[in-house]
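**User:** My hope is that you can spare some time for a protein that puzzles me. As I understand it, each token names a local backbone shape. I would be glad if you read both lines and explained how they fit together. The protein I mean follows directly.
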Amino acid sequence: MQPAARWTLPLLLVGLIAQDCFSSKAEDRLFRKLFRRYNQFIRPVENVSDPVTVEFEVSISQLVKVDEVNQIMETNLWLRHIWNDYKLRWMPAEFDGIEFIRVPSNKIWRPDIVLYNNAVGDFLVEDKTKALLKFDGTITWVPPAIFKSSCPMDITYFPFDYQNCSMKFGSWTYDKAKIDLVLIGSKVNLKDFWESGEWEIIDAPGYKHDIKYNCCEEIYPDITYSFYIRRLPLFYTINLIIPCLLISFLTVLVFYLPSDCGEKVTLCISVLLSLTVFLLVITETIPSTSLVIPLIGEYLLFTMIFVTLSIVITVFVLNVHYRTPMTHTMPDWVRSVFLRVLPRIMLMRRPIDEDSKAGGLDSSGEAGGAGGGGGGGGGKGGKKRKNSLMQQVGGGSLNCLEFGDSKFSTVEGCTGKKGPCPCQNGKETPETPDMGKITRQLSPQSINTVVAFSVVSPEIKQAIESVKYIAENMRSRNKAKEVEDDWKYVAMVIDRIFLWVFVTVCVVGTVGLFLQPLCGFVS
């Protein structure tokens, strides 16, 4: 048993080698027989009036690139050609049962099918690949090729755009009477398609057309494939749209920043500079075409105008904020609209001064100035603040002569008064008023009365005049401060108005620009 097993393996190897040798010899004989008198330049038809029927199919393996600027679509395709050559037939039994043979494509007749709308490179495919030949004369030739086809593109809704790129295949020299094209299937074969990271093929139907051109009388058939492709917008959404959206909403915060901090213009300029740098970075990403304005370009332009307007409005608001009575006079309509009407509409409440709550008129009997304003942001405002210095010097009036003392009965405001002076507590009126018993509020009239009709020392008179000067000075300062506060409140109201206006415009503009393409993308 061992000697038999020892010779079994070598005998099998020898048999296989001999079979391969015989098969190679049979294939060599077949090849020599087929191409001994074969002419690859003659159409393979028995009757010259008969057309060669060529079955055609396109299989796409990769969508290499879509160039929006040059309007070129680059694809990697496999072109399947199937036709019958009656001169390349044999009987398998005569050649050791060989039914298929691979032959060089440049040795056989091939249909000259080219890409009509080729943009760059050769129109014809290379003949380096071999063709599969069957014993009944059926030839299957599947050459791979990279085509750069011209494709008119509409980038209006970039980066949510759709494109329809067609590829037209047909014979360049043979009309329909010589070559008849037959479409295999109804669509491009996507079984071996390698998914692209930027584009998605939605559909790729194929159609056959018989067209008569102006140059010739013959009818030329062609097969056209329409590639409906959709851009995947995730990359552009993260790197373009979201940063622009954040910059737009950052601009809105300018109107919420108080004017007193002095950083409103700085924030505006910083946002504008960041947007400018961002535009310089993404210039190469956006399709550079002048035919249409892309959607992302419109949004960037909208954001740029948005930021620029915020700078202009901020400068105007700061101009209003720092106005004073020495430079501007507040018109009545501004006081009515911006201090009464608009604050109520904008739901703004102006803080009420504590001194205004205590109430009271000032020494001249006037009502409160424009600086108060509670509730809805009132007009000329709340009541004027009391003079703290006047309260310290004497909260009462020095005009004790207003009460009917006969000695000072000629003083203005004292005539007709009855009864003793309250500050004397029923005692006899002295020749000189008791300055330590002053209890009522000072007024210019009372001070003038005391100075004019009282027998006091020059030092006291000078002190009273100084108090009067200080009181008038503080009163004028309070009035100026109240007017300045009104201007600041007007600026605050303007800021609040444009805050809501810009928020509304930003939201409506963003939704309006991207709603239609987003709806189309989702559907």
User: Anything to note?
Assistant: The chain has a mean pLDDT of 78.
